[in-house]
Amino acid sequence: MRVFEKDDLINLEQLSKQELMRLLQVEGNLQQQLFRQAQDVRREYGADEVVLRGVIEISNYCQKNCDYCAMRAANKKLERYRLLPEEILSIAAEIKKTNVISTIFFQAGQDPDCDPILEEVIPEIKKRFNLNVLLCLGEKPREVYFKLAELGADSYILKFETSDPLLYQEIAYTPLARRLQCIRWLQEAGFKVGTGNIIGLPKQTLEMLADDILLALEIQPDFVSSSPFIPNQNTPLEDLPYGNLNLILNTIALYRIALPSALIPTVSAMEKIQQDGQLMGLNAGANVLTINFTPDKYREKYVIYSQKRFVVSLEHALQTIERAGLRVRMPPQSTQEIIEDNTCHNE
Length: 347
Ligand code: 5AD
Fold this sequence. Notes:
Elements: H1 17-24, H2 28-44, E1 49-59, H3 85-97, E2 103-108, H4 115-129, E3 132-136, H5 142-151, E4 155-157, H6 165-172, H7 176-188, E5 192-199, H8 206-219, E6 223-228, H9 245-258, H10 268-273, H11 277-283, E7 288-292, H12 296-299, H13 314-323, E8 327-328, H14 332-346
Parallel strand pairs: 1-2, 1-7, 1-8, 2-3, 3-4, 4-5, 5-6
Helix pairs in contact: 1-8, 2-9, 3-4, 8-9
The chain binds 5'-deoxyadenosine (5AD).
5'-deoxyadenosine binds at residues 68-69, 136, 159, 161, 198, 227, 229-230, 232, 269, 304-305.
């Protein structure tokens, strides 16, 4: 494999924490070399078609109190909402109609009251639209994960956020061990699992960021992501600076090289901190874009990054992919429809 060739920047077999710390900081020519290697790996593993996900943020209620997030339970200034099954199904139809989105993505705060809604909605979506169902709903009991898998959900994202147990506990007020246990349960339940880190948390060191990559390697997730910390209004961390974009891009490239066929998103938070940030993510080895389908009236209440977050439209996503010289991975059914269409024209 190319990653082991001599002219490459990285030899995975010799990848130590020290080496990761060095690679995380590369700039200029070395950084370009790192990105090229990530792009080569992505192509060699057939992972360079970009997957589009359509996200619906179904509830902003949350049991947790993470210092970086304005949906934390202690934020009494936030008006809470939860979508109804009918609303979710009508948005799902919209997502299906695009013909280019293969995955419907339900995101919410950690809100057990979403469970009965999902029980109704997931089987219906599988039956009517045959989309991949991806969930990001936080820590739940083992049996709830198994139930969600049984209902037909395909994948689940639970980011470890930081690999440092003390920092995690300090910022999220729950043990990291519990979160890692949840990740194992999700894998046991048969989900494709996503995880990853946030870069730019207070007291986070370069060594911790290297450990984040090593932890992701240990978990062997199907999806992995890195997002910059975004200071969020009405949180204890509102006055902190944004996470560093170069560190994010280098982490994306390292994730790509270490987990060659993983799905790796280039997140909207990167566009928020720099124009074309998501394009830079694709150039660093990412291969997923998420388009926001949350209705406007709820969207402003889903204050995941900040009140003025960057909202990704289908148009922005398609333009970004084209500018990166990449193509969209079409959902299997749509490809079929195109083939059938062509057959008709030929007849
Ligand atoms: N900055 C960066 N990432 C954040 N997330 C939530 N709030 C922030 C923030 N202020 C990320 C977390 C969470 C995911 C859904 O969004 O990683 O797991």
